[in-house]
Amino acid sequence: MRHTRAVPAVATLSVTVLLLTGCGAGGAEATKASPSAGGASQPPVVLTLNASDGQKHVSVTRGGQVRVTGGSITRVSLTTADGAPVPGVPSADRRSWAPGSPLRHGTSYRLTATAADGHGHTVSRRIAFTTLAEGDRYLATHVPENGSTVGVGMPVSFTFDRPVRDRKAVESAFRITTGSGQTVVGHWFGDRRLDFRPEQYWEADSDVTVRIGLDGVEGAPGAYGEQEQTIHFHVGRRQVSTVDASAHTMRVERDGALLRTIPITAGAPGRTTWNGQMVISEKLRTTRMNGATVGFAGEYDIPDVPHAMRLSSSGTFVHGNYWGPDSVFGHENISHGCVGLNDIKGGGDQGQDAAWFYDHSLVGDVVVVRNSNDRTIAPDNGLNGWNMSWSQWRAGSAL
């Protein structure tokens, strides 16, 4: 889905002789007509700044930048309010100028810029502005990571460090394109989390590009974004594993072919495993699992659980189990809600089922649980929005 962001209007500016004003990319333009020797009008000199006079909350990355068309930049002076100069770098063609490094947050600046055409006609602008204070910004963390290869179930998930009130403005700042041509739609889980996914799993062996354009977007009163970033990730092969809790098995299928059927142990009565489509969100060679963190205080505390792959934020994993007897795998459900695979202490035997599954899995692979005596996992418990219908998912978009 391609999103565009509206550019706010800026205050009218005036320059001597014949000047026009208008809206640039978040800034202001000063224009002067340039008559030629024969009297015919030449393209005007258009000087564009990325801020207007008196503007607050200006971007630390775009603030101070200058652009010109119909001429070239002859002089730029950028200083702090107390007169300290800010070094800058002009482009080779002198059509643009930018500070040598991002500006400081919450700082007042004065900017003077002059441009001229080949006939000696000049345009100048002088403004004062203040950059966005650190306390007035919001940030978004995201998965997957840039440059990663993920499974077909991996959503693009953003978590904001403060509540978002203007969901439409924020969601519009993201643009996601796919090499497969799949349509991607956002869904809000509350006011701090925004996930994107297509109707069906991502197509295998495809590429996804995520453009983040939050710089200057007011997500809540007095809270502005500043992230401008492009993320690329690759979708690998299609692997979907299906756990049958009543049959105590897991079928691992890749690209439509059965790779392996693994005997498992799922949640015991009263501690059953969620049903539904779950996405591997994290892989840990070894981790500690303490029942006190998930409502089973005093029932277990295992410091070295091997080959653990997270399926929910509430503590559901598929992991190696070395403490259960071999006889339970494929025959009994004894866990506290996780899916256990046979393993040894330390996880050093690559011939064990848990080691094999760990080595053959990606973050973003799908694990589907069926026939457990429990309800379907909540879509926001982990990266598990696939448990919503497409119409339910689209209803959660602000656009």
TrEMBL record:
This is Ig-like domain-containing protein. Keywords: Acyltransferase, Cell shape, Cell wall biogenesis/degradation, Peptidoglycan synthesis, Signal, Transferase. The keyword Transmembrane does not apply. Residues 81-104 are annotated as: Disordered. InterPro entries: Big_10, LD-transpeptidase, LD_TPept_cat_dom, Transpep_catalytic_dom. It comes from Streptomyces lannensis. It holds the Pfam family Big_10. The active site is at H319 (proton donor/acceptor), C338 (nucleophile). PANTHER family: L,D-TRANSPEPTIDASE, L,D-TRANSPEPTIDASE YCIB-RELATED. Pathway: Cell wall biogenesis; peptidoglycan biosynthesis. Residues 1-28 form the signal peptide. Residues 239-370 form the L,D-TPase catalytic domain.
